[in-house]
Amino acid sequence: MTNELIITTYRCPVEAIEPCDEFKHCNALLNWFDNHCVELHSSGIIELSKETLVKLSCDLNALSAANCTEVFPTIRNFVHGFDAYDETYWQQVYQLRQWCIVQLAEVDFTTQRLFLQAAW
């Protein structure tokens, strides 16, 4: 088990699974999934639907300094990940926006499945 928050995503056709990305220390993403989908537990794997990805993408695209604490809040005092709304937070938001764009463009949700696993 690791001592840091790592969120890994996997893409696969039904017969194979392969990692496609990792987001380290992004407790705002963990918090988003806890509040919009299902509470994530360490090592638990959830399937991401196209609708979930679209909702995440919309929320990320709507973010501003004025609304980030409501739309994509961090988990205050969570021992894994960053909870400040600083440059690191906005870099993670940018990376997640780009990731959503790629996944929505490349994943064929009729023949592939997308999963997420959080570990800490």
Automatic annotation (TrEMBL):
It comes from the Bacteria. This is Uncharacterized protein. The lineage of its organism: Bacteria, Pseudomonadati, Pseudomonadota, Gammaproteobacteria, Pseudomonadales.
